[in-house]
Amino acid sequence: MKSYFPDYEGGSIVNLSSSIETALGGSPKYGCLRIFPPGKIHGSVVLIMVDGFGYNYLKRYGKGSFMYEHLVGKITSAFPSTSPASSPCFQTGQAPCEHGMVGHAVYLKELGGQVRALRHKPRKGYDFPMKPMSGLYGFKPMSNRINAISYVVLDKKIVGSEFDIALSGSAVSVGRASVEDMFEKLEGIIKSDRRRKFIFALESEHDHLAHDYRTKSRKVLANFKKFDMLLRRFVRSIRGFDATVIVCADHGMIDIPDDKMIFVENHPFLKKCLKFTMCGQQRYLYCYVKNGMKKRFASYVKKYLHCNLFYPDEIKKYFGGHKCYKNFKSRLGDFVLVPKDDYAVYDLTSGEDKASYGLNYADHGGFSSDEMFVPLIVVDVR
Q1: C-beta atoms surrounding 223 within 10 Å
Q2: Residues 3-62: pLDDT tens digits?
Q3: 151-157: long-range contacts, CB 8 A cutoff, minimum separation 24
């Protein structure tokens, strides 16, 4: 399976944020998106991030849909192609090396243990006091740098969380109860007055359903069709208001066959080599290896684990190209594993089990086209 890498030189979600920021009066560090320069953006900007909605999925299952009709093209995710690393790119314009949130499970030397990054709490099996997210990552919200009134529309359970506070900046956070409610909130904000606005909205159901049932599931397809219908209805409802509606994703997803799931518990030699449980997620893993065992660890991985093995200095470029967050490199461990093809590697802590952990029958984080490419959908509303 061929690997694809982030294109921070004008072809990634980071560059999409640069186009939006430039159009709204900001001065981003990264260049603008080649296929969608700021001159194509007008009025208020509604940016809807559909979690896990890959370009390949739209091409396979979306022909004839409203989103397919307004497809501009494909762009890349960041690396790793996963929500904690890639989702913040939309609200900050920063690549993962700069904001420092490099995965779902991250080892923070500042705290001496692993955290579940999005939930901002210790990973199961760890117990230590947390510090504010603002002191552990380098988020610089785009809302603080643009000439527009900013809003963020999120699941009401997320509003007011550490993650929301750290990323939203000066934006007003609005809670929503469902995808239908999300579009109603978006319509209300657009119609509230004629001032220019930037609205970021997050919808996660595609990702959740694909994790549980794989991307080929009828449930995932039904959810896609529902979202497509609601998007069409929303665009129709705001006709007459000057706006650019953008739909994109933080990453795509790849199905993981049962026989491609590798459990580290079945490889006791790996456990013997590791200082503690691998960090990251199933399609990208940060490994902290005991002194004197690194060569043997690398040899074992190459022979038995169906993974590409990188030293941090080899893979660093895929996290972005500007000044990295102060503790970025310490979060990559001694080796970074990226499973080949459609393999996934599962390493659970002493506090986790397969039932509570969730095995994710479709996943993301790696370099496959299914994971790395996301669609850019733009609707011109006048």
Answers
A1: 18
A2: 999 999 999 999 999 999 999 999 999 999 999 999 999 999 999 999 999 999 999 999
A3: 151/189, 151/197, 151/198, 151/199, 151/200, 152/91, 152/199, 152/200, 152/201, 152/202, 153/182, 153/185, 153/186, 153/189, 153/199, 153/200, 153/201, 153/202, 154/201, 154/202, 155/202, 155/204
**Could you please report the per-residue DSSP string of 11-52?**
SBHHHHHHHHHHHTT---SSPPPTTS-GGG--SEEEEEEETT
Token look-up 């080796």 returns 335
**Reported pTM:** 0.97
If asked whether residues 244 and 290 sit together in one domain, one would say no
Residue with tokens 């509230």: 192
207 shares its domain with 287: no
CA 194, CA 29: separation in Å to the nearest integer?
Answer: 29
Among candidate residues 375, 347, 320, the one with its CA nearest the CA of residue 101: 320
Do 225 and 316 fall within a single domain? no
Give the pLDDT mean for 75-84. Answer: 98
Domain limits at 182?
Answer: 13-254+368-381
Q: Do both 103 and 245 map to the same domain?
A: yes
DSSP character at residue 103 = S
Question: In terms of domains, do 264 and 247 share one?
Answer: no
| Phi, psi of 155, rounded to the nearest 5 degrees | -50, 135
Q: Could you tell me if 169 and 221 lie in one domain? A: yes
d(CA 180, CA 307): 41
Task: State the CATH number of the domain containing residue 143.
Answer: 3.40.720.10
